[in-house]
Design a protein that fits this description.
Order of helices and strands: EEEH
Shape: globular
Largest sheet: 3 strands, antiparallel
Radius of gyration: 13 Å
Strand content: 15-25%
Number of strands: 3
Helix content: 10-25%
Distance between the termini: 38 Å
Number of helices: 1
Structural class: alpha+beta
Oligomer: single chain
Mean pLDDT: 87
């Protein structure tokens, strides 16, 4: 799959502290979602298809990735 990221509008979560240690997300054509490291915006990005992103978001909302101390 080849998705053009040149016109992507990247953003951080509203829960971000504003530091450099965040991921950025971009809504892409065809419902795809791009994810990249905010510390390296020129570096590689992951691209998820709509069903993979929906599954990931559902798992987050359900506490699947809650960190245990």
């Amino acid at each position: 799959m080849s998705i053009d990221l040149s016109g992507a509008k990247w953003f951080k979560s509203s829960h971000s502290s504003g530091s450099q240690e965040c991921v950025e997300v971009a809504w892409l054509d065809g419902g795809h979602v791009g994810v990249r490291d905010s510390k390296n915006p020129a570096g590689p990005a992951l691209v998820f298809d709509p069903s993979a992103w929906d599954g990931f978001a559902t798992d987050i909302a359900g506490g699947e990735f809650t960190q245990v101390a």
